[in-house]
Design brief:
Layout (H helix, E strand, L loop, with lengths): L10 H13 L4 H8 L3 H8 L11 E2 L4 E2 L12 H15 L10 H17 L4 H4 L2 H15 L15 H9 L2 H6 L13 H10 L23 H10 L3 E2 L17 E2 L14 E2 L8 E2 L13 H16 L2 H15 L6 H17 L4 H9 L2 H5 L16 H11 L11 H17 L29 H15 L13 H8 L2 H4 L2 H12 L18 H13 L7 H11 L3 H16 L8
Antiparallel strand pairs: 1-2, 3-4, 5-6
Helix pairs in contact: 1-2, 4-7, 4-18, 5-7, 7-8, 8-12, 10-11, 13-14, 14-15, 19-25, 22-23, 22-25, 23-25
Amino acid sequence: MPLTPLTEPLGNQRASHLLRRTVFGATPDLVQEFSQLTPQQAIERLFISDLPLPEPPIDPATGQEWMLTGTTDANSEGFELEQYFLGWQMGQFLAPNVEENQKLPYIFRERLVYFLHTHFTTKRSVVGSSRALYFQNQLFRKFAFDQFFTIEDSLEPLNFKDLVLKVSLDNAMLRFLDGRLNVKGSPNENFARELLELYTIGRGLEGTDKGSSEVGDYGTFTELDVQEGARVLSGFNTDQNFSFIDEQTSLPTAIAKGDGLTASQHDNASKKLSFRFGEAVISPNPELQLNGQATYESAVDEIKQFVDVIFQQEETAIHICRKLYRFFVYHEIKEETQNGVIKDMATVFVESGFSLQAVLTSLFQSREFYEGGDGLTDDNFGSIIKSPIDLIIGHARNFELQLPDYLTDATTFYEFTNEWLNTMRIMGLNFYEPFEVAGYPAYHQFPIYHRGWITTSYLTQRYAYVQRVSRADMMEMSVAISTPIQYVEKYVDNAIAANARELVVEVANQFLALTENLGFQNEGSSPLTEERLNYFLNAFLKTFQIDENPEEAWTFRWTQGVDRETVERQLQDLFNAILQSPEYQLM
C-alpha cells in the first residue's frame, strides 16, 4: 500500500519536525511560515533546481583554491589541506555566500550530502588526499537532488543506481577499500563485499532470521557473489592528477590499468553470480573490446551490468530505504515496519527509477513521517538523538550564527570550524574518520544506533558546549551570533516575555521537539510535567536568587527596561537549562 498522504497545513509541531530533520532546525519565524504550508508546498521549498555549487575551499597559505588547479610547493601541508576541506564542509551546512531564497534548499542538499557520506563511508587517514575527498563530496552533491540531475542528449535524470556505479569508480573509494589493488589473477574483495553488504543489497533486516544456515550464504548474497564481484571490479587505478573526467558528472574518475588502449589488469572472462542473483552472468561486450581484449569502456560496462543485477533484487531497494528511514525517521525497524512503510518507500524508489529525491518527497509528505502509520498511537517527534553535527549546526541555525567568509577570511573561518570539528570529535563524531568501514556506528550498529551518541563522557561534552555557547562566548572568535536576550527580544512577544512562566513555556516550545499542549496547567496532556517546567523556571530565576518575589521582579525589570545585566544573566541561565536538558538532545 502507498504511504498515507498528509494534505492539511503542517502546524507548528510538524513544521518544526520537518525543518529539524531536513535543515537542522530553523528560527521561529521560519517555523511559523512553514506551519501554514501543506507538506506538498513545504517540500517544494526544499527541493529546487539550479542551486549553485559551492566555491572550493581556500588555502590560507596561498589565498587560492587548490581542488581544481592542484597543489604546488607554496600550498599548505597535505594534512592541513584535509583539515581545511573538513572545515569547509562544516561551513556549507550554513549556506555561505548563497542568496537568501536559496539558503533553505542549499542546506537541505548539504544534509543529503552528509547522509550519502554516512552511507558511502570514507576515511580521511586512509584516503590521504583532500582533493579525492572533495571530488567525492561533489559527487554526492550532484546526486542529492537527482531528479534535477540530467545530462546532455538524455531526458532521463541520473539516479541512485547511477551513483553506485560512479562511487565504484571514485578515486577516494578506490583508495579507501583497496579497489586500486584489485587486479586480474589477484583479486581484492574488500570493495565488492562492502558494495553488496553496505551500499546496495545489505544482509536483510537486522535481528531477524535470514532464512539460510549455509556457510557463506548471507540471505541476500553469497561468498561467490563477493568473489565474482571482485573480478567484475578489477583493473582500475586512482588518477593521481584528477585529470580523467567522467563525461556525465564532469568530475574526476578512475583510470584503467593498462597501456591506454586496453585494460590489461581487468579480468576479461565471464562471471557467474550465485542463485541469490538468479545465476546471472556478467560478460564483456565484444563491441566495446579491442581485438577481444578488455578496454576501459568494456570494464565499466561490466560494472554497470553488475549494478543492474543488484538493483533488480527487491531487497536492494528495501535496504536503501531502511537506511533513509533510520536517518530521517527512527532507528527501530520491526518486521511490521518493514512490511509497511519501508516496502511502501521501496515501491516509490523502484517506480521512480531509483530516485533518492522521489522517495524522500513521498516520505516527507506522508503521515508516517510525522505521526506513525495507521493503528499506531505513537509519533516520530523527538524520536532521534541529535548527532554532534545536528547539535552544533542546529544551534547555529537557531541563533543565526554568521561564519566569517571563507573566500576572504579563510584563516578566521578555519579557526572557528576547527573548534567545531574538535568539539564534535570529543562528542563521539570524528568527522571523516569513522573507526570501521561500515561508518559511524550511530547509523548502522544494531541495536544501539543513534543511542550511541549518549554516554557519560559524550553527554558531559554536549552540556559543556551548550553552556559555553549559551553565554555567547563564541563572540570572542569574531563570530556573529545572537545572545539569549537578543533572541528573546527578536522572537518572543513582549507580553509573553514579561511573564516568567509564559516565557519558560515559549522558549521550551521553540527549542524542544515535543511541545504540543505544553504548559504549567496542562497536567496529563503536556509533554513536560509541571515539575519539569518548574525546574526550568527555578534555573531561570533562582540560580542566583536575589529577589524575594523573583517572578514579579522579572516582570518589573523586563517591562521597565532596567537592570539589563541581571536580565541578561537570568536569560542565560534559562537558555542554559533548556539547551542542556535531555529533551534538547532529541529531534
